[in-house]
Amino acid sequence: MYVNKEQLISYIKKLSEPKVLVIGDLAIDEMVYGNAERISREAPVLILLHSETKLILGAASNAAHNVSALNGGKVSVIGVCGDDFQAGQLRETFEKANVNCGLLVVDPSRKTTTKTRISGSITTSITQQIVRIDRQTNEMLSPEIEEEVLKQIERAVPEFDAVILSNYHIGTLTPKIIQETIRLANQHNKIIVVDAQKELEVYKNVTSMTPNLPDTQKSVGFLIESEEDLQRAGDKLLNETNAKSVLITCGADGMFVARGHGNYTKIPVFNKSEVFDVTGAGDTVTAVYTLALAAGADPVYAAIIGNIAASLVVKQFGCATTSIDEILNAVEEL
Prior knowledge:
The chain has helices spanning 5-13, 60-71, 85-96, 143-156, 175-187, 213-220, 227-241, 281-294, 299-313, 324-333, and strands at 20-24, 26-39, 46-59, 75-78, 80-81, 105-106, 114-121, 128-135, 162-167, 191-196, 208-209, 245-249, 255-258, 264-267.
């Protein structure tokens, strides 16, 4: 497919316009840093002298943060948090990221999903992650909390241009919430994009989905080792979900877009040699791809813009975001 550079730039400039609603498993990443000081006398373990703690939006929250960085905060989240200290941290981090969290539902029986990464360093070495501690409740929502979430979704969907369903399989996106969100999005003629790690066939009648290669293989049931395999996988997902398009992210091999009727596009990866940390890059792709679709781009142009954005955030450590100016500069350098 021939890509018109001026057309691509025009879509990038429109990324600030659409309003986006993100529904899914919200989380914060707590990054704890320290300098290695000595070995403890109590046990053969390293003692770190604490230097700083950073709170970063993770999981579905990261997709919302990426949207906010591009559209000036025209983004809201719907999800569940606990009635705990971490819930306050989550709200505070959303506010700093200019993400509206006024639609959050509180469930006192659940933990606010928090992933704590403890990293240490010495003066002659890079920072090294030592351990990760996950705080979360994996059970599906109770019927009462599910009903509260559904009420928020029903009120919110008509007010937005696009909806992202971000499923990290921590329990927020119940079958009923998935089906009702898709129904409402279609009823109100909204873009709806799915970012999920498994059971892709349950997302019927969506605009698009953005699975990575390993998750695609698990969903379609066969190894993908060639472009022909990608075509077959794309067709299977399209047939099973009735999606208008499928974007498969293939890591260092770029992306693949399937749109049905034998319409396939392979997109190469950008700045392959400058990858520092791929954490959260999938959320960036989903966020930017959704914004571009809502701005009027076709799936291939939207995927290219998402690809460029991902090439920028992987240069940074942890979940990161980019800006419209950075994406435009990257286009000029391609």
